[in-house]
Design a protein that fits this description.
Layout lengths: L7 H54 L18 E11 L2 E11 L13 H88 L1
Antiparallel strand pairs: 1-2
Helix pairs in contact: 1-2
């Protein structure tokens, strides 16, 4: 805690600082609430996407053995060329939002490839897209959590340090200035009595 000057100028500075803290604190508290709510919502989305991925995986397991029949295999067709995302601003923080994956056109020999191959590639691509979406959701949640930690620290700083410190400084300065004024009044009365006494003495001479 910095040393406080017991002056009227310092009293004004402390009062102005307290006003700023009290004005800024509700904004920080609102941001904290927004971040907490968004993290809950993003976790709910993450859980939902995770359930969709598991459902897709279970569906694929039913015919996964057929993949051995394809001479080319599906792996070359599952590498995305591009991930399309957008940015969403949440309480002043930019969070990535998954849109889709872009895959190259699947080209293969129609005579050598089984009829079910198209559907297999499509289903597996959907699973890859869900996994990528989960990764981006987790990235966004981590960004929000980091921002929440910083915002919570600032709220605590204002609530537990800055505001009480300014209030205490104002209290101490007011007490000091009040004492100084009382002392000045006391000295003024003493001086006045001395002067009046001298005047009376001179008048009696």
């Amino acid at each position: 805690m910095a040393k406080v000057k017991f002056t009227k100028g310092e009293l004004k500075r402390q009062r102005d600082a307290l006003k700023q803290f009290l004005r800024y604190l509700p904004t920080l508290q609102l941001k904290k609430q927004q971040l907490q709510l968004e993290i809950l919502q993003q976790n709910a989305v993450l859980q939902k996407v995770g359930q969709s991925l598991e459902k897709k995986r279970q569906g694929i397991l039913a015919w996964a053995g057929l993949l051995s029949e394809s001479p080319e295999g599906v792996r070359p067709f599952l590498k995305p060329e591009k991930t399309l995302t957008r940015s969403k601003n949440i309480a002043g923080v930019d969070v990535p939002i998954f849109d889709s994956l872009v895959f190259a056109t699947a080209e293969y020999d129609l005579f050598l490839t089984p009829l079910w191959f198209d559907n297999a590639v499509q289903s597996l691509r959907e699973m890859v897209a869900l996994e990528r979406e989960i990764g981006i959701l987790r990235e966004g949640i981590e960004i929000l959590r980091r921002e929440l930690r910083v915002t919570t620290q600032r709220v605590n700083l204002f609530e537990k340090v800055k505001i009480p410190e300014a209030e205490e400084n104002i209290r101490l300065i007011k007490i000091y200035i009040g004492d100084q004024m009382a002392n000045a009044v006391g000295r003024s009365k003493i001086a006045k009595r001395k002067i009046e006494g001298l005047v009376r003495e001179e008048a009696m001479v």
